[in-house]
Amino acid sequence: MSFLPEIQQIEQRISILGSAMRSEVLAYSETSGAGGELRFPIYKLSFGSTDPQAPVLGFVGGVHGLERIGAQVSVALLNSFSELVLWDKNLQRTLQDIRVFFIPTVNPIGIYRKTRSNPRGIDLMRNAPVDADDPPRFLGGHRYTNKLPWYRGEFGAPMEVEAQAMIRGVQDEIRESKLAITVDSHSGFGLQDRLWFPYAKTLKPFPDLGLLYSFKQLLDRTYPHHFYRIEPQAGTYTTHGDLWDYIYDHHQSPEMGQHKNYLPLCLEMGSWMWLKKNPWQIFKPEGPFNPLIGHRHKRTLRRHNTLMEFLIRAVSSPDEWAELNAAKTLELESKAMELWYAKS
Ligand SMILES: [Zn+2]
User: Fold this and answer.
1) Average pLDDT of 177-194?
2) 76 C-alpha vs ligand 1 centroid, how far in Å?
3) What is the pLDDT, as a whole number, of residue 342?
4) Measured between alpha carbons, how far apart are the two ends of the chain, in Å?
5) How far away, in angstroms, is 310 Cα from ligand 1 center?
6) Cβ < 5 A residues, ion ligand 1
7) Residue 267 Cα, ligand 1 centroid: separation in angstroms?
8) What is the pLDDT of residues 159-170, one digit of tens each?
9) Cα(93) to centroid(ligand 1), Å
10) Which of 120, 216, 291, 323 has the maximum number of C-beta atoms within 10 A of its C-beta?
11) Are 82 and 59 in contact (CB under 8 A)?
12) Which residues are in the Peptidase M14 domain (predicted)?
């Protein structure tokens, strides 16, 4: 039977933690064909408050299988978090008021086979029914053939099993939450770690800009030497079918009731740093997307611990930064417009 070390680690956590968390198989990712049959569960682990309105923090990884480091970082965060849950009284108290969840391996067959897409050749981050303004040809998502990367799937077809599993897994956690932050880990772009916020589909400003700017100020004030570049995802290029655009818009749609504070972030790890230090790895399929040398890999796995700690604290203390009156929101929005959208 085929196995994935990332899934083995998740299953170990489930057996160690017992009733200290809730686990769910959101779906199975399956394929059969020339390479034999493959079937992997897509797990979600959830900790803390079951109050639907409680603030929520979520970590997602492995959407693009080839960017394996995204799944590995999510599992590493899960491992540390799970240990803390067992002994850290502060965290145990915090979890009475907030909920934290992990979906570390959204596209397990992609991870196993080192492919960006799912087993049907569909790029999950191009698969949502969302059309972009002026995306680059191919790269921004296309419907020509699954033989090329960035394939969106057929027009009008239901979303892929893995995409649906992730969307439902996230929505079940955040639906009625007063404040939610999710972090989806990717790699493959730039010399610096970025925190991208929506939209991917358009250069038009993200509706929760005031909240986002307040979040940035909090991070900058608390950790002035942090290394994250916070910017709108579409600043690089626009894409069709982004799952976070879809989740965000659905979450804020009128049928979902009143507006709720939600920041869907993507951690885009600056993989060119790894390439710069070890140019030869570009000749391996996973080379452009992952730290391949032992010490660099380890360093990457521990690199985002402070971010996780910061996010737990930010989500559990929303009155400091997320409960904004109209005047404050306007002031923050104008600063954000100046910083991120002045050119357009
Ligand atoms: Zn990616």
Assistant:
1) 93
2) 18
3) 86
4) 52
5) 23
6) 64, 67, 186
7) 9
8) 999 999 999 999
9) 34
10) 291
11) no
12) 44-254
